[in-house]
Specification:
The chain contains six helices and no strands. It is an all-alpha fold.
């Protein structure tokens, strides 16, 4: 196997992994949006990012198709199920909005790292046709991480205020 073959194989595996991670992101964010009541700005930003994530999945589908392959149904299903389970685990917590904010912030940085790695593989493997799509997805993930970072103080203060008014169950969503 030549070095170019190895890079191609690794790049395709990375694209499939990113595809599964984006499917997982959808399964994490969608239940959150349906439960948010007291944090409309968070719900609005999550809805926007769900749309962005669907666009990222479409871009990954196109990149995979350019290599005559597609996402891994098994990886997609496995990570989607784990994302759903994570969302469910937080839904029973009194501080759901806080835990979701932490998890979303960490998850965005995981995705940022994945896209940065894919960009390195694209450069080293000569897959320059993939660079614009990967950079667009990276930028969207960086924007979302920045938004969460900037809004965490607001969410935390609102949570504390709602908790003081009516206890933890009133403050969660």
């Amino acid at each position: 196997m030549t070095n170019q073959d190895v890079l191609r194989e690794l790049f395709i595996v990375g694209l499939k992994n990113a595809h599964a991670v984006e499917k997982q992101a959808i399964s994490i964010m969608t239940p959150q949006v349906s439960r948010i009541e007291n944090y409309p700005e968070v719900a609005d930003r999550l809805r926007l990012h769900i749309d962005e994530t669907n666009g990222q999945i479409a871009r990954l589908d196109e990149l995979l198709a350019s290599f005559d392959t597609s996402g891994s149904a098994l990886k997609d299903m496995g990570l989607s199920m784990s994302g759903t389970m994570a969302a469910l685990a937080h839904s029973v917590a009194g501080d759901e909005i806080i835990k979701n904010s932490f998890a979303n912030y960490a998850f965005e940085h995981f995705e940022i790292a994945a896209y940065k790695s894919l960009l390195v593989m694209a450069e080293d493997g000569g897959f320059t046709n993939a660079t614009p799509a990967l950079k667009q997805s990276l930028g969207e993930e960086e924007d979302m991480a920045r938004w969460i970072d900037e809004h965490l103080p607001v969410v935390t203060r609102r949570y504390a205020s709602l908790y003081a008014e009516g206890g933890s169950m009133e403050a969660k969503v």
